[in-house]
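Cross-posting from the modeling subforum.

Setting up a comparison between two proteins and wanted a second pair of eyes on the formatting. Protein 1 (sequence, then structure tokens):
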Amino acid sequence: MRLATWNVNSVTARLPRLVDWLDQVRPDVVCLQETKVAQFPSAEVERLGYEVAAYGMGGWNGVAVLSRVGLDDVRIGFAGEPGFPDVEARAIGVTCAGARIWSVYVPNGRTPTDEHYTYKLAWLAALRTALAVELGAHTDLVVCGDFNVAPTDADGLRGCDTRDATGAGRAGRPCLARPARCGPHPDEGPEPLYVLGLPRRNVPSGQGDAHRPRLCVRDCGRPR
């Protein structure tokens, strides 16, 4: 299965680019974040053979999954998900060709002293608990998205202090047991596969474009 994750930072603004990219690359499943629409523009991608599951709230946040290998068992949000103060459109789960796939947009946290950072850590902890339940029900579990967590110090932008920066902060890392971008997933017991959309590694701050698609090929789900 060819999976992709993409923080589109407004599907309305990037719709022509998204449609062109889908037509050229033809991934099996695409997870989108920061769609920033209440109503996803499904018709444009359905013409290319994709089914759509979307969860949006208007001008902020929003997640979606596009699939051309089937799309079933859609779930909006997850059990125990905290809000700020209300639950936001940050997580959607679907089943595609037998694989359970989540698209998530983790809260940014703003600054480590902000209440939003406490919310971010609570949100990640609740996600971790929910994924443990999902893992018990599904052999193949893939979590794609914008995690606003750099898995290692090397993944941070150059000049970014990972001790204090909310997006790179180490405090969120324990909530992602063995985060990976697209490398081999170690066989060390059952864990979800995390596919993270990250800027280019170790580049000056402001030059790592996080709003680009990341493509990953994984052996999961049923063969097409």
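Protein 2 (same layout):
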Amino acid sequence: MIDYQEWYNNKKEAYSSLMRVIRPLLDLLVTNEGIHHLPIQARIKEYDSFIAKKHRKEIDNPEDITDLLGLRVICYILSDVEKVKEIVEKYFKVIGRADDKTQDLGTDRFGYRSVHYTVSISEARHNLPEYESYKDLKFEIQIRTILAHAWAEIEHEEWILLFPDNQYVLVVDMMGRLEF
């Protein structure tokens, strides 16, 4: 039987170290392409969230939880999201991609627009001595616009309750018109 607390504790320092290396690397890659963005967010999933996800998704193997490290790139405009996706696909080993609702929504509707990549260090990079210890670690990179980020915050139930129904519809409509 797996001791999840021990497994988590053993991995946490490796992921914390990876975060200290990957956040500035990702920032450099995005900035070098001339993409304006907010400071890249990064976090290590707390143990309680790790266990909650394990139970919610009915995951037995802790290695299947691929977002112990999560990074988020928040761009100002939608076209820059496409550029960041190209960067991720070029400079990281992509294991999976999910939650990209952008194509489903089209250009005239607003909603949750975020791309989630499960990645690891690229083979070329993990052959470098400073990256070698990270080669087997999977992590998540999310990419979204600033308005999609605001929307994701508003969509949380506690915020929705602040808007009467008609104002909520107006906020959704306004945000959809602003994003380009």
